[in-house]
Design a protein that fits this description.
Blueprint: E1 2-7, E2 14-19, E3 25-31, E4 34-35, E5 39-42, E6 50-55, E7 58-64, E8 70-75, E9 84-87, E10 97-102, E11 105-111, E12 117-122, E13 127-132
Antiparallel strand pairs: 1-2, 2-3, 3-4, 3-5, 6-7, 7-8, 8-9, 10-11, 11-12, 12-13
Length: 135
């Protein structure tokens, strides 16, 4: 287990994510005083995972893949949706960061090939294109 990330979307709940030795993503949750079984979420990560909760029982996990793009999966309260590419020209290795201020806003930050911080966000209807942040 390496590159551990965690998030909470409700009282008494923790969701933990990590990358295994084969670079796949894993997940398990803590609820009711105990940890549940680990589940494999697949993928081939070239960074540690970043995760944010955007509502009760809703969360999104991000990672850079070996193709140098950002990929994400999200939990909708019933099931995990498949990995999808959010593009980018990102450095392999550095872990992205993710945040949310509401169900209609997700922000993710990653290190580009130019060593700058790049930002992309969900505006409630779509992923807005990458922007390079001043450094």
């Amino acid at each position: 287990m390496r590159d551990v990330a965690a998030v909470s979307w409700g009282e008494g709940r923790i969701d933990q994510f990590w990358r295994d030795d084969a670079d796949a993503l894993w997940h398990r949750s803590y609820q009711g005083g105990s940890w549940g079984p680990a589940e494999g979420l697949g993928g081939t990560l070239a960074s540690g995972p970043a995760v944010t909760a955007w509502a009760p029982d809703r969360m999104e996990v991000f990672a850079v893949f070996p193709d140098g793009t950002l990929w994400d999966r999200y939990w909708d309260g019933a099931s995990w949706h498949p990995w999808e590419s959010l593009g980018g020209e990102l450095a392999l290795g550095p872990t992205p960061a993710a945040s949310s201020w509401s169900a209609d806003r997700l922000d993710v930050f990653a290190t580009g090939l130019d060593d700058a911080t790049w930002h992309r966000w969900w505006d409630g209807t779509r992923w807005v294109e990458w922007e390079r942040l001043p450094g």
